[in-house]
Amino acid sequence: MALDYDIRKDLRYQQGMQKGLEEGLEKKQYKMILAFLKLGKLSMEEIANAAEVSLDYVKEIAEELKK
What is the pTM of this model? Predict the structure, then answer.
């Protein structure tokens, strides 16, 4: 007898998918912030607003860029 199980309804699968989506978004925001910082045309506050992240996070990335 074959077992028919929809893995997409599994709690752990859904949690994994959510975590993957969050990590993907975080990576995309990081790349966008780097690009804005390299352009040098926007203030850190404007970058934080555009990326929907905290100003501290933008400052942290800016410090990494200086190294």
Answer: 0.76
Q: In the predicted model, what is the mean pLDDT of residues 10-25? A: 94
Burial classification of residue 58, based on how many CB atoms lie within 10 Å of its CB (0-12 exposed, 13-18 middle, 19 or more buried)? buried
**Which DSSP string corresponds to 2-61?**
-----GGG-HHHHHHHHHHHHHHHHHHHHHHHHHHHHHT-S-HHHHHHHHT--HHHHHHH
Residue of 29, 28, 31, 34 lying closest to 65 (CA atoms): 34
User: How far, CA to CA in Å, does 49 sit from each of 1, 7, 20, 22?
Assistant: 56, 37, 23, 18
